[in-house]
Amino acid sequence: MSAKPEAEQDWFLKTRRKGPAPVGKSTFVLLRSLDVLLQYYLLRSNASGRFIQRIGGAAIPPATPLALGLSPYQLLIWTLSIGSAAKQIFWTVYISDNVFEAGFAAIISAYNTLLNTLNLLLSTWSATSNAPLSLLGGTVPVGVLLYGLGIYLETVSEIQRKAFKAAPGNKDRPFSEGLFGLATNINYGGYTLWRTGYAVVCAGLPWGAVMAAWLAGDFCFRAIPMMEKYCQGRYGEQWKLVRTKVPYRLLPWIY
Fold first, then answer.
1. Strand, coil or helix: what is 248?
2. Lowest mean pLDDT: which of 8-17, 113-122, 139-148?
3. Strand partners, 67
4. What distances in angstroms separate CA 68 from CA 65, 71, 74, 180, one per listed residue?
5. List of residues 6+ apart from 24 with CB closer than 8 A
6. What is the rounded distance in angstroms from the CA atom of residue 86 to the CA atom of residue 115?
7. Residues near 243 by Cβ (< 8 Å), separated by ≥ 6?
8. Which phi and psi (to 5°) does residue 67 adopt?
9. Around 196, how many Cα atoms within 13 Å sit in the side-chain half-sphere?
10. Which of 97, 99, 122, 230 has the greatest count of CB atoms below 10 A from its CB?
């Protein structure tokens, strides 16, 4: 094994350590909350449109505001950013019991803000925007459906696992019931789906396909193999039984 995979696995094991993390969690909650305000500012002020024009592109014309100075389409995009932040803040505060260092929290926050902002810019650029004549038209409903399903899968699966681990005698047992009975990393699959749906709402199916390929590739070739190695080392024969029982790793009937 080369030095790089070993370093990545060591880093992954470090993120699995249990313990309090008030500074890291507070950092994450603050930065994810600020992202919601940033996305609103970019939408409300049309800063994204001005940026597109500054780099030589054509921005879609501002639509009539419905509420909070935002058009229905802009309100939908902002709602997606709120939902993503709320889901991740909920995970940080109520689900996670791992050590969450402030630097790592800042990196994860910046990554999600980058994706949200890129989605917003593409929704403003006339060449890529998926702005519909009606929110019920085009592929926007498809994106909303994927987003909702993904948020559900990621959130509920993690709640189910936490409840299982909290029961006496389950601390050192792998969880393979509930939604985790569909795929061993169904929470990763949920993240992939809602990020893909977010991208579809903003810039249509082509951008959604790019996002899905990027996230699925990262999970399948990097994150899931590291998780598999971690689980095999922690649970031993129990994990082999889980892999036999649950053949899928990311999403059922897909991978």
1. coil
2. 8-17
3. 70
4. 8, 9, 10, 39
5. 99, 100, 101, 102, 104, 105
6. 16
7. 184
8. -160, 150
9. 21
10. 122
Cα distance between residue 114 and residue 204, in whole Å: 18
Q: What is the DSSP string of 56-109?
A: T--BPPPPPP-BTTB-HHHHHHHHHHHHHHHHHHHIIIII--B---HHHHHHHH
Where helices occur in 91-183 by DSSP H, the ranges are: 102-124, 140-166
User: What is the per-residue pLDDT for 235?
Assistant: 93
Residue recorded with tokens 């922690």: 234
Chain Cα centroid distance, residue 155: 11
β-pair partners for 98:
18
The tokens for 81 are 């950013």
Q: Is the pTM of this model over 0.85?
A: yes
| DSSP-derived secondary structure letter, 185 | T
CA distance 60 to 225: 42
Residue bearing tokens 């399948």: 220
Written as six digits, the tokens of 104 are: 């790592």
- Decide: 46 and 62 in contact? Cβ < 8 Å: yes
Percent of the chain residues past pLDDT 70, beyond the cut: 95
Distances (CA, A) of 53 to 58, 60, 125: 6, 10, 9
**Residue 39 corresponds to which tokens in the numbers above?**
């996305």
